[in-house]
């Protein structure tokens, strides 16, 4: 039997260290410098945060999403999941540990598909935590359907000219470079005619039309860019993946990892909501008893615990499969399922926690509405929930077959007749003994 739900003592010690370190040193950063996680470090922030990063390196917990051959620690997805549960409590924690999205996914695809020169120019600064990147894929008119993309790159000698618009390119305004998905051959299917390029953000013609904010953020002060690529000239060496037409293969490597990493961090965030809910109901009294003694509130706690435990075990199992097969395609169904479940789990738990805090819960003095809004974002980031449900259904159906019979294979009258025929001689003995 290989089933085991225990963490080996050596790695558990690292997790215990990370738990205390995040609580005591990293979570305060969320309040000292909110919303500055993806702004390059300078001044006081660098003096405060660089030493924290060094302590993480000394513990061997820096950039755990990549293997040693790719510049990381080589812990694998299962151990990364256990660490990400802790990091999910703080918006600064992934930065301090060198495993923030979208840079984790971007680093992974450069590590897998980049040339030595590309790795030197783009990957190493990412791994060192000295720059940020942006994944520039979505287009305004196309939504979640990349076959509708129109941004193109046309060859011009030993260069390419990129033209078009990209939408929701997260962190573009502070990124050093972009990974851009474009059409390079419109005469074949999108799955064979699209390519990816590495484009420095200071390349002439890269124009950020506006920085779209999420709900509640000031207009044009958000972090999700609408980018106009206006005759952007890049050399052949900017092509990612070893040649033209590799965009979909590259994208699946990135998005598969990114989706499950989001799920890992969501576990920690949802657990934080449960912790706050439990503290509140143990601390408040109404109508003659504690909130914790009210059956309605107990239902909230039980439902939240059950939801999160099921989700956590599913995510850990998916991470284990990724380590086992080392192939995101083989785990596609499970990654998509985690992506489907994730927004609902976070929304439901955060909403219950908000409710038990009463009026305080809906104010900006508590984080619950930020969590609820984050759940909505998770339902769209890296593809909408509905698309992933379709993926799950198709994958599940592949393991089943239709029947040509008029009646289902589990039709009881036929099974009953078959059972009686199979055990006829014994059934006759029973009748004879009556």
Automatic annotation (TrEMBL):
This protein's GO CC annotations: cytoplasm
Acyl-CoA dehydrogenase/oxidase N-terminal domain residues: 9-130
Catalytic activity: a 2,3-saturated acyl-CoA + A = a 2,3-dehydroacyl-CoA + AH2
Keyword terms of this UniProt record: FAD, Flavoprotein, Oxidoreductase
Domain of life according to the entry: Bacteria
Biological process according to GO: fatty acid beta-oxidation using acyl-CoA dehydrogenase
Acyl-CoA dehydrogenase/oxidase C-terminal domain ranges (all copies): 248-397
GO molecular function, one term: acyl-CoA dehydrogenase activity
SUPFAM superfamilies: Acyl-CoA dehydrogenase C-terminal domain-like, Acyl-CoA dehydrogenase NM domain-like
Cofactor(s) required for function per UniProt: FAD
Domain Acyl-CoA oxidase/dehydrogenase middle: 135-216
Assembly and binders: Homodimer.
Family affiliation: Belongs to the acyl-CoA dehydrogenase family.
Name of the featured protein: Acyl-CoA dehydrogenase
């Amino acid at each position: 039997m290989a089933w085991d739900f225990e963490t080996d003592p050596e790695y558990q010690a690292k997790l215990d260290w990370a738990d205390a370190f995040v609580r005591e040193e990293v979570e305060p950063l969320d309040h000292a410098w909110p919303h500055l996680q993806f702004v390059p470090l300078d001044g006081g922030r660098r003096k405060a945060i660089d030493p924290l990063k060094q302590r993480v390196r000394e513990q061997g917990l820096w950039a755990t999403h990549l293997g040693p051959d790719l510049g990381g620690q080589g812990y694998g997805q299962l151990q990364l999941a256990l660490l990400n549960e802790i990091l999910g409590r703080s918006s600064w924690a992934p930065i301090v540990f060198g495993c923030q999205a979208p840079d984790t996914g971007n680093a992974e695809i450069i590590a897998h598909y980049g040339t030595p020169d590309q790795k030197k120019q783009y990957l190493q600064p990412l791994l060192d935590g000295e720059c940020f990147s942006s994944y520039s894929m979505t287009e305004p008119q196309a939504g979640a359907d990349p076959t509708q993309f129109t941004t193109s790159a046309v060859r011009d000698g030993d260069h390419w000219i990129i033209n078009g618009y990209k939408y929701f390119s997260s962190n573009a305004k502070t990124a050093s470079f972009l990974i851009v998905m474009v059409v390079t051959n419109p005469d074949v299917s999108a799955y064979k005619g699209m390519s990816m390029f590495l484009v420095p953000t200071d390349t002439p013609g890269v124009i950020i039309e506006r920085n779209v904010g999420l709900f509640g953020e000031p207009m044009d002060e958000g972090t999700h860019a609408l980018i106009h690529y206006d005759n952007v000239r890049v050399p052949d060496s900017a092509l990612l993946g070893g040649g033209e037409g590799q965009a979909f293969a590259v994208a699946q490597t990135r998005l598969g990892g990114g989706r499950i990493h989001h799920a890992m961090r969501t576990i920690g965030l949802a657990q934080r909501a449960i912790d706050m809910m439990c503290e509140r109901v143990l601390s408040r009294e109404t109508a003659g008893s504690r909130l914790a003694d009210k059956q309605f509130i107990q239902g909230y706690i039980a439902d939240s615990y059950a939801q999160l435990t099921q989700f956590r075990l599913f995510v850990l199992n998916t991470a284990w499969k990724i380590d086992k097969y080392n192939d995101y395609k083989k785990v596609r169904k499970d990654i998509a399922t985690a992506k489907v479940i994730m927004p609902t789990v976070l929304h439901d738990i955060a909403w219950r926690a908000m409710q038990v805090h009463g009026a305080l819960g809906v104010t900006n003095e508590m984080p619950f509405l930020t969590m609820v809004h984050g759940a909505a974002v998770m339902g769209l980031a890296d593809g909408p929930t509905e698309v992933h449900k379709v993926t799950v259904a198709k994958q599940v159906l592949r393991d089943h077959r239709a029947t040509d019979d008029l009646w289902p294979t589990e039709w009881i009258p036929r099974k009953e007749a078959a059972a009686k025929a199979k055990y006829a001689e014994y059934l006759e003995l029973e009748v004879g003994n009556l």
